[in-house]
Hints:
By secondary structure, chain A is an alpha+beta fold. Chain A has 3 helices and 10 strands; from the N terminus they run ααββββββββββα. Chain B is 72% helix and 1% strand.
Amino acid sequence: MAVTPPTVAIWTSVFDVYLVLGTLVGIVVISVLTYSVFTKPKVKAEVGPKRSSERKKKIRAVILTLITISILTTVELDTFSATSLVTVPSDPANSMTIQVVGQQFFWTFIYPNGYAQVGNLTIPVGETIILNITSKDVFHSFAIQQLDVAKDAIPGRYNQLWLEVPTPSQYSIICKELCGVGHAFMTAELYAVNASTFNAWYGSLQTKGG
Amino acid sequence: MAFDFRKTVHRWTTTTNHKEIGILYFITSMFFGAVGAMLAELMRVQLSVPSNTVLSASLYNEFVTMHGLVMILWFLSPLGIALMNYFVPLQIGAPDLAFPRLNAVSYWMYLFSGVLAIGGLFLPGGGPNGGWTVYQPLNTSVYSPGVGISLVFLGLAMLAASVTIGSINFLVTIAHERAPGMTISKIPMFTWFATFTLILMLLAFPPLLAALVMLMSDRLLGTVIFLSVAGGAILWTNLFWFFGHPEVYIVLLPAFGAIAEILPVFAGRDLEGRRLIVLATGLMVIPLSMLVWQHHMFITGINLAELATFSVTTIIISIPFDIIVLSFILTTLGGVKLNTPMLWAYGAIVLFIIGGISGVFLSSFVLDVVFRGSYFVVAHFHYVMVGATIFGLVAGVYYWLPKITGKMYSEKLGLLHFAISFIGFNITYAPMFLLIDMPRRIVTYSASTGWGTLNYISSVGAIIFGGAQLIFVANLLYTHYGGFPSIPNPWQSLSPEWGKGGLLRSVGSAADGSYGSSESEAIEAKHTSHRPLEVSIGVAVTLVGLATSPYLAGKAVIVLGLLFLVYALLRWARDNMGDKFSLGETFGDKFPFAGVGRIKLGMWIFIASDILLFGSLIGSTLFIRENSAIAGVVWPAIGNVHDVTTGAISTVALLASSFTMVRAVMAQKAGEQRHYMIWLSSTFVLGLAFLLTEASEWYSLYLRGIWFNTSLPNGLYFLLTGVHASHVTAGLVMMVYLMVRAVRKPGPEGSKSIANFALYWDFVDIVWVFLFPLFYLV
Ligand code: HEM
Ligand SMILES: [Cu+2]
Ligand SMILES: [Cu+2]
């Protein structure tokens, strides 16, 4: 299976498994609890231990534990089936690497040709984009929630993220880690544009230092 | 009963009685809870509509930070400790805690630490505003200057000290002071969960303390541990979450303990899977809680192997919780009596199930890419911390209220309190599960995000939920002032704290509805002391001085605080010499501590926590060295900065002092007073020689222009050897005490503490054996 950049569809398909199983388990367990709590005890106000067969109890415990473990295993395997969402290949074909620098309180994007712009990230659709994320001052976190991608921006370190946007569209980029007074407003825009539009724009840029 | 103000103040400020201290903890934690709740309500008002301007961004950030810190550390955890204080000794039939005065020290340190923390909000520059997780380098003085911020972090360190003292005290009590017949298999569930909580406290707080020591060193002494990218952000996240994850269980487990007491009583049958619950918590939750911390760091750039490991450990740790919840549910099968405590316990379990399941979502490193830093996480931890923990502890309070006050609360108010709280809680937090795209800790959002409606609903819920707590206060006041007298064991519980089971051996424990000790003032009179309060005041004043030390007045306050502290400690020592406050040593006859003295056991546990403190400091140093290349920091060559010969001399002096200490112990055992004095004073002289050699090295470095703030390696050297030197100094002070005691009370009685002290001294020496090569030889 070819490794592809994260897509919303993959994230959602993983999420759905958790959602279905989680909701189901939640409903069953809470219903049983609620039912038994809201029934009057049969033996009225009886004090002292009441024993049901030890063997039965043991079997019941084993069965319940097995069910629990199999549900947990199922969801964990579900996560492991989608590791491409969090791993970035070192040098995928047909890709462009853009540096992302977080700083109180804005994002700077530096293109391969050295052109740097603040506050908006323009990318061509259908191309694999690798973002190389770092920070100039404090701990930030780069995130595009609608595209299901995020990585922390940490001073002195470089974290990679990859993404591919299929159709022309616009998304907001946010900071997900409290970084100071301007944190809530540390946003930027992602513009995914047609390859031809992108190339025309990119070709027209004079190279500026980052 | 006439109200005598002076007598009342005297009683509550000098008490060392576990019941009374439990009540103090309860009232204090409720107060801090109210403060934290107020901050939360203001934040919910700010967030109720888009682009709101009720709070400024800086104020919002301060509130969100202080809300988190106050609620977790000064409200929830101490509320559990309040119940533990009152009921653990009763449940195990102990006369009191093993060290009643230390228990009072824990309380006063807790109270003052909270006062310092809240006081920090009002100092120039305000309180911290970087979130309760205190991420770095945002919270160093470069990005967050201000004495208020320093004061809050010092308050946090003081709290860590209080918690550590408390957990040692409780663990010794539970291991050592159980009544005859209270075998391990009979220990009640609340005490079991208390024990697990205490073990986790002992393991989690020293790393936090180490992290805070380094942070304060950065803020006050000019080191750059968290400012440099060699340590910095990643070192802090690791240290913080190594503390932070166990901390969430520290908060939770006392509530589970209360629920585990309540369910069998109201169901009228044994707790299902009692042994299994104890084993699962003790053998899985405790060790695994140290191995999951990086699930808070899924998007920090850790590699796939680490992602996988921490995701799997997180899934595994949810198994014991499943076992606990299923056991709780099985216990209720067949119906229960629905009194207020049972309803609250029911609410707690329901909310824990929802919170726990959402936790499993978060354990997926794939899904967490989006959840991390979003309102989904906020929903998750409020379901477990407010839902499970507060509901469970409130259940416990209602359940034990007749025991504490001797009166019955209002059932009607209790039910109303539950109904409104439960509904209000869900209106507040359920919408947050849907706000997956909304980042947490933002002061406002624009209308175009579409988050407005859910936020509005949540804010309405917050008002309902907050308002419902007034009913709680009303019910508590009603119970105290107007409640009908309760029969001694209204729930017909079989648990020993209610007076059944014939395990009680103490005067204080046997009475019901006394709020503590008044039934036998004559005995209690010997068990009161002003010293705990005085010592805590001394510490608090010193810390206020430290926080404000950039100003001259601050430095003066430090001196003042230290003088007062010394005064208080001298008076404490005098009390001891005069046996003013004596407990009489007992020997643990309980497995597995047969024959181990109370103080010795306490010393061992203290050393364990101190090992974690030094371990965290040394580990951090190694981490920074490992990463120093990123920062372009070059470690000094051997012999270049630190003279190996000087280091070797101090090492020899300290190791020799271990040897003389052994001889002192042997002399004491043999009853040779003169030899005892000779060896003890030799130890003192050698220790002093070590300290002076150290001091001369510090001074010569200072003359060469090398100090805390000259470089990362220099700073670490001064900080770590400084922390060690403070331990040596404390040891020398204790030796002076031991020598004076031996002179005033010749014979074995006056020197019996030496074996316990020797443990400490050996430990201090061993730490140096690690520090010496770390800074001089490699
Ligand atoms: C089945 C049990 C649980 C699992 C699997 C679980 C899992 C997680 C995970 C993976 C996170 C990190 C999420 C993130 O930041 O992206 C998290 C956060 C958190 N959890 Fe849980 N959790 C569980 C139970 C609890 C309990 C019992 C408590 C407390 C009583 C708790 C309190 C918290 C808190 C406070 C945070 C957020 C800390 C912060 O970032 O401020 N969790 N949980
Ligand atoms: Cu930010
Ligand atoms: Cu955790």
